[in-house]
Amino acid sequence: xxxxxxxxxxxxxxVGPPFEYHYAVPQSPELREIYLRVREADLLRYxxxxxxxxxxxxxxxxxRYVTAECGESGAFYRPADADVVLCYETLRTLYERGQHHxxxxxxDDDHPLRYVRANVRFIVLHxxxxxxxxxxxxxxxxxxxxxxxxxxxxxxxxxxxxxxxxEQVTGNLRLAANWMLSDSTGAYDLHAYxxxxxxxxxxxxxxxxxxxxxxxARFASIIDAGDLTAARARGCVRExxxxxxxxxxxLLPHVASEHAMSEAEALHYLRxxxxxxxxxxxxxxxxx
Length: 288
Hints:
Layout: E1 20-23, H1 32-41, H2 48-53, E2 64-68, E3 75-78, E4 83-87, H3 88-105, H4 111-135, H5 144-158, H6 166-180, H7 190-194, H8 200-214, H9 221-224, H10 230-233, H11 236-251, H12 263-273
Parallel strand pairs: 1-2, 2-4
Antiparallel strand pairs: 3-4
Helix pairs in contact: 3-4, 4-5, 4-6, 5-8, 6-8, 8-11
């Protein structure tokens, strides 16, 4: 949003509570190298979408981002502490998945790290959605998990680094969609159907629809590749625009006064941010 505050040494002052970042020391020796690399890179602080919204919202208390040992792979929002937690085990699993995906695609040696970073961005923004719903008491009809998937995708589409091309931005989202399918067997039981999350395949196609809906002419190859049906694609522009307006309608009343704007101004700003060089062929984050 216009005038978003920086996280570094304060050229622009914060008007909402700034986010906090913490890297907890793991007890397990096998996770220590991951912890050291994450802390050295200050990974969470420099996720571009977080930088864009840090200090923008008039939150009732601070929101903290934490990496920690969890005992299993995962990420979650902890309402009692207002913490978004990313588990070191998740980073390890993502890297292993990225290596597997690299071999499947015959991609370059940097692919596993790109896979990790793309998915960390989506996962952290997904949990940020849960945090904003909680801290701002936002109404959500339908499944909250679906709603925060949508918010994460919208933030990645509009608040990536300015020097990232459309191909890179959409490639990151498609890598996140690939991760959603990583544990899918296609065989579901009653617990899967009753879960608060949509089925992995549904989450995958929902992301493809949001990508396609931003510019059907650019992303026609998604249909050609079989990653989105023509029938679903016909409604994706309308679906994407509706979701963007819905989230703006929910979030704009909670924007700190220095960043206040009308819905029309916000939509115009999003369109400006989404103007990027046309992509080449889209990457292929299909599941092996």
